[in-house]
Structures are given as C-alpha cells and as structure tokens.
Design a protein that fits this description.
The protein is an alpha/beta fold and 163 residues long. It has one domain: Lumazine/riboflavin synthase (Rossmann fold). The chain has five helices and six strands, in the order E-H-E-H-E-H-E-H-E-E-H. It binds ligand LW54GNZ2 and ligand LTPLIIQW. Catalyzes the formation of 6,7-dimethyl-8-ribityllumazine by condensation of 5-amino-6-(D-ribitylamino)uracil with 3,4-dihydroxy-2-butanone 4-phosphate. This is the penultimate step in the biosynthesis of riboflavin.
C-alpha cells in the first residue's frame, strides 16, 4: 500500500511484545542527517514506548548509507547481546546514476546480512526523489519510517526468540 494513501506509522503497543529485556542497535548514516536524525528519533521513541530501557538502545553513526552495511556487520560482531539491528539512511536522487547504485548496493548488502546473521537487520532506508519526500516520511505528513522500523524490530525479535 502506498504511503501516500495511509500513515503506516501508527501502532497499538498492546499488540506488540514487551521490550523490557530487548537490546537493539541502530546504525545511522550522517548523509542527510536532518532526515536520518528524524528517523532515529522515531525509532528510539517507539522502542522506549514499547518498554526498552534507554541503555539497551545502542547508536553508531556511519558517513553514508553505503557504510550502513559494514557498520551493521561490525556492530553484530562486537556486541553479541543485541537482539536486532536497525540501519537508518536517506538516499536522495541527484544528477547521476549514483543514487541507483547506492540504493541497490545497500539493499543487497542488508539482505545479505539477514541471510548470514542470527539476528534480524531491519531496513530503514529512504530512497527518495527529493527532500520533500524524505521530510514527509521522517516525522511529517506520511509518518515516520523510523517508527515503522522499530515496530518491525520488536516483532522480529519476538519471532526469533520463539523460533
Ligand atoms: N548521495 C548520498 C550518499 N552518498 C554516499 C554513499 O552512501 C557513500 O557514503 C559513499 O559512496 C562512500 O562510500 N549517501 C547517503 O546516505 N545519501 C545520499 O543521498
Ligand atoms: C545518491 C548520491 O550519491 C547522489 O545524491 C549524489 O548526487 P549526484 O548524482 O548529483 O552526484
């Protein structure tokens, strides 16, 4: 369903697992940090609202979205107490095909991490045509994709623990 037709960021926490003993890492790209900080804030707020302790939310920054792949891989390697990792980035189309390669590279890289990792890696990457689309999806009229990523993380942690 297209975001434009619905704000997908609303949730009913009574239908979600209690996160009091969950630990989540969030790797944040510094490119378009006005947007990525908004996405991070949405994710952090939802995780805290659903019971996580502040000390159980671990944030690492990386230069750009392409570095989210290595950052998430390294975070998983060095912190074996994590239950999930969320990667947060915002790629905005420029004049060249670089947008296409960054978006596809990060998508495949995060997909590959999910194939080899024992914990879920949640994909919170905006791939927008212009910044207005990014603003609308990082706490604007179309909600916050960071919130949605946090909800996905909670659900996947619960699934992983019950598997
Ligand atoms: N143009 C954007 C980038 N580009 C940088 C790459 O992500 C990467 O850091 C560089 O190629 C060095 O490896 N990154 C974003 O996150 N958003 C953009 O719009
Ligand atoms: C996604 C990018 O790296 C892009 O924003 C860079 O802009 P340009 O394609 O004009 O070099």
């Amino acid at each position: 369903m297209a975001t434009a037709n619905k704000n997908l960021s609303e949730y009913d926490k009574t239908t979600l697992p209690d996160g009091k003993d969950f630990r989540v890492g969030i790797v944040v790209s510094e490119w378009n940090d006005q947007i990525t900080n908004g996405l991070y804030s949405g994710a952090e707020a939802a995780l805290l609202d659903c019971g996580l302790l502040a000390e159980n939310i671990v944030r690492w920054n990386v230069p750009g979205s392409f570095e989210l792949i290595f950052g998430a891989k390294k975070m998983i390697e060095v912190d074996e107490t994590l239950d999930a990792v969320i990667v947060v980035g915002c790629v905005i189309k420029g004049e060249t095909m670089h947008f296409d390669f960054v978006c596809e590279g990060v998508t495949h890289g995060i997909k590959d991490l999910n194939l080899i990792s024992d914990i879920p890696v949640i994909f919170c990457l905006l791939t927008d045509n212009h910044i207005e689309q990014s603003i609308a999806r990082s706490g604007g009229e179309h909600g916050n994709k960071g919130t949605e990523a946090a909800i996905a993380a909670l659900k996947m942690i619960d699934l992983n623990r019950k598997a």
